[in-house]
Amino acid sequence: HTPSTSFPDGKIKSNHLGRVSELLNSLDNLKQEVRIKFKQLTNQEMLVFSTIYQLEDEGLIVDHSLLSQRLSLTESSIRDYVQRILKKGIPLIKSKEKNKKVLLSIDPSLKKIASLSTIIQLREL
Predict the structure, then answer these.
(1) Could you tell me if 37 and 90 are in contact, meaning their C-beta atoms sit under 8 angstroms apart?
(2) 52, 76 Cβ separation under 8 angstroms
């Protein structure tokens, strides 16, 4: 690939602008995809998702019992919501610690492109 070079008059090579434009379009498509996926969530599912996001941001390790305490829901309800969120294609990671405790986290690649407030705003569009 050619490095972008600025000419003395301050203009940037057009191929660089083309790449910038492509990137912005792919970002728009990504936002559109995120919006469509998150619009499919019920308010309760969105609450579970955003609570996982917030707890993780607080540096906590999230599991069913922590969520059930925070949201005053049974662990069984939390499990159901998590399953539905996953079925809808939301990038949530479910992993097992020592083959027992199920840990929940938000996919880091989603966190890179969208903060929780951005996801909520996209969902409201």
Answers:
(1) yes
(2) no
> Looking at the DSSP assignment, which residues form a beta bridge with residue 62?
104
Task: Give 45-70 as a DSSP string.
Answer: HHHHHHHHHHHHHTTPPEEHHHHHHH
pLDDT (tens place) for every residue of the chain, 125 residues total: 545 455 555 555 567 777 878 877 777 777 788 888 999 999 999 999 999 999 999 999 999 999 999 999 999 999 999 999 999 999 999 998 877 889 999 999 889 888 999 899 888 87
Q: Output the CA–CA distances (angstroms, integers) from residue 43 to 36, 37, 88, in the order listed.
A: 14, 13, 14
- pTM reported for the whole predicted model: 0.78
Closest CA to 85 of 118, 60, 113, 110: 110
